[in-house]
Amino acid sequence: MTGFQSSAPGARDVAAATLGKLRSVPALAERYSDVVVLDSLEDLVHVPVMLKDDLNIALDHLQPRAHEGSTWMFQSGGTTGAPKLGYAPTGLYMNEVHEQWKPLGPDDLFVNGWSAGKMWGGHYLVAAYADLTGCTGIPLGAIGKAEYDAWLEFFLTRRVTAFGGAPSTLRNLFGYAREAGVKLPDLRSVLWLGEAWHPQLDDDIPAVAPNARRWGLYGSTETWVIGTNTPDCPDDTWHPLPSQLVHVGADGLIDFTSLKPHGLNPVLRYQTGDAGEWVSCECGEPGRALRLLGRRDGVVQFRSHNLDVDATIAELTALPGVARIQLRITSHPAKADTLEVLAVPTRDAGPDLADNLRRHMCGSGFGPGVVFHNDPTCLTVTLIDSPVMNERTGKSANLLRRQAA
Ligand SMILES: [Zn+2]
User: Fold this and answer.
1) What is the DSSP letter of 48?
2) pLDDT band for position 80 (50/70/90)?
3) Cα of 289 from ligand 1 centre, angstroms
4) Tens of pLDDT along 282-336?
5) For residue 185, how far is its CA from the centre of ligand 1 (angstroms)?
6) DSSP string of 252-287, one letter each residue
7) Does pLDDT of 6 surpass 70?
8) For 230-264, what is each residue's pLDDT tens digit?
9) CA–CA separation, 79 vs 377, rounded Å?
10) What is the average pLDDT value for the chain, to the nearest integer?
11) For residues 169 and 191, what is the distance between their CA atoms, to the nearest angstrom?
12) Beta-carbon neighbour count of residue 340 at 10 Å?
């Protein structure tokens, strides 16, 4: 067994057609020259994995068009790298999601809090989903802190039952609502996608909306929705859609193959950088579920040393007085890179927080500690009021990069 099995109708034919499309791309022809036919899905084991740049090259050449309806083009990324492109037809494939995932129904009043515009898919994807549920929708988009009071009052008086957004958005809004003493007793569903869940939300949401439970979607602009998550599933565990062939490699890295008959993105063993393992989910749903184990590309080079971004952030966030940590690497024209630890303190943080963070970074627990020791000026710790957000997507990345002016 190779781990390439699917019950999706016509699965082999769809994968073979995608292979044919990729072989027709001149810049990729050699890459796929060893694989001529797929006699069965098991033959995918011979197909090389595909990365972001390969998909961008293929899309550039293929210029996909929808089989029916219109073609929509989205992009993500850009916070830490080149944009990732994705195409989708009218409806954004949400029929299949609606079959499997039911956080909303006709009685719901749903606020879509994903930021809209600028080619980011989250807002439109969830709007397409909401369209299938018969709910009443409120296309709010991203809002700033100065607007929170007015909108929270609106949610309360209109008796909003469902709210959705990227976890960064949810953290800001529910954290604010909790501090302000706002209660939303009618809220029963919190929808999330775009980032990992954050444990702080497990404290803040019950304090604000005791009847609310979380419902997640996992995917990317290139793969579209891969899996769904219910309140009874752990927040890192996903039930894949039938049209998504998910494969976990020997190295733990996951690759995805789209088995949608009229799918527009030629996704064939596409690696997003996420690692995972197969588990049976605590919710009791039969069949195997995918547990995510974080990104394997979270290790970056800083002055020739490996800096494990996720591990560093996890260690620093565990220190007392820390609400949120981001790392920012700045490239300079005439000297080596510098690293900045951006820390959002908790309300009860002590005055020595910045010193503690600095001491921890310089300690022996981190590979680059020796760098900070040799050149103390290459590390700064900055306390900030709220995380640095990408204005386009409303997401706050763990690692930020910028060029010095
Ligand atoms: Zn589950």
Assistant:
1) P
2) very low
3) 7
4) 999 999 999 998 777 677 778 877 788 888 888 898 899 999 999 999 988 888 8
5) 26
6) SEEEEEE--TT-SS--SSEEEEEEEEEE--TT--SS
7) yes
8) 999 999 999 999 999 999 998 889 999 999 999 99
9) 25
10) 91
11) 11
12) 17
Distance 278 CA to ligand 1 centre (A): 12
Decide the pairing of beta strands 399-403 and 379-383.
unpaired
Burial string for 274-296 (b: 16+ CB within 10 Å, else e) reads bbbeeeebeeebeeebbbbebbb
Rounded Cα distance between 129 and 114, Å, is 13
Distance CA 202, CA 183 (A): 15
The count of C-alpha atoms lying within 13 angstroms of the C-alpha of 195, restricted to the half-sphere facing its C-beta, is 22
* pLDDT single digits (tens) 17-40: 999 999 999 999 999 988 878 999
- In CATH terms, the fold of domain 86-295 is Rossmann fold (3.40.50)
- Separation of 283 CA from ligand 1 center, angstroms? 4
CATH code of domain 299-403? 3.30.300.30
> In this predicted model, which residue has the larger pLDDT, 2 or 146?
146
287 Cα to the center of ligand 1, angstroms = 10
Compute the distance from residue 101 Cα to the ligand 1 centre, in Å.
Answer: 11
Across the beta sheet with 399-403, the strand order is 379-383, 338-345, 322-331, 399-403
Is pLDDT larger for residue 351 or for residue 363?
351
What spacing in Å lies between the alpha carbon of 229 and ligand 1's midpoint? 6
Domain ranges of the chain: 86-295, 299-403
Say if residues 255 and 249 touch (Cβ distance below 8 Å).
yes
pLDDT of residue 366: 53
> Which carries the bigger pLDDT value, residue 60 or residue 392?
60
CA of 238 to the centre of ligand 1 (A): 6
234 C-alpha vs ligand 1 centroid, how far in Å? Answer: 7
Which residues are CB-neighbours of 114 under 8 A, at least 6 positions away?
120, 122, 123, 126, 141, 142, 164, 165, 166, 169, 193, 194, 394
CA of 285 relative to ligand 1 center, distance in Å: 6
* 299-403 has the same fold as 86-295: no
* Rounded (10°) angle between helices 309-317 and 353-362: 140
Residues with CB under 5 A from ligand 1 (ion): 233, 281, 283, 285
Q: Both tokens of residue 129?
A: 């989903």
Task: Count other Cβ atoms within 10 Å, centred on residue 99.
Answer: 12
